[in-house]
Amino acid sequence: MKIDPKNFYVNGKNYTIRSVVASDAEALSQLRVQIDGETENMDREKGEGFITITGFEQLIEEDSKSSRNLFLVSVVDQQIVGFSRCEGKNLKRYSHKVEFGVCILKDYWGYGMGKNLLKESISWADSNGIKTNMIFYSHPLMKMGVIFLQSDHN
Questions:
Q1: Class of 6-153 per CATH?
Q2: Where are the beta strands (DSSP E) in 68-153?
Q3: pLDDT tens profile 27-56
Q4: Alpha helix locations (H) across 53-139?
Q5: Where are the domains of the chain?
Q6: Which residues lie below 8 Å from residue 3, measured CB to CB, with a gap of 6+?
Q7: Distance, CA of 32 to CA of 47 (rounded, Å)
Q8: Entry pTM
Q9: Which of 114 and 8 is assigned the larger pLDDT?
Q10: How far apart (Å, rounded) are the C-alpha atoms in residues 16 and 4?
């Protein structure tokens, strides 16, 4: 699934949140490894679960075609500095749920990128019949963000 790009200005930083495109695969492969090494808040250590450029190309293609998935990037000065991904299940009993993940380079924390990626994901979920209280997170810190955004959102 794709969304229209949105521009943000937060704490003196301009950035764009947009849907991922195939040409982002190489940058995403490198970025994911870098982010994993910057914080212990991720479920992986640096280099674990490595996704190749080809692997990202396949993910991007699949997500672009699926109404259950959303893959977004945060871009500053034409450089990808973060990304988020919602992945839905094709099982009927789980069709109203998605799993959400977000990654931002440490140098770009504090500009609302994670919050805005989550807001865009919630907006997409709402418009696609996915309950925002059913966005799963894989790290305990995400729970606070989900609760905060739901109270802002509703």
A1: alpha beta
A2: 69-76, 79-88, 98-104, 135-137
A3: 999 888 887 766 666 555 566 666 789 998
A4: 53-65, 113-127
A5: 6-153
A6: 18, 19, 70, 72, 120, 124
A7: 9
A8: 0.79
A9: 8
A10: 10
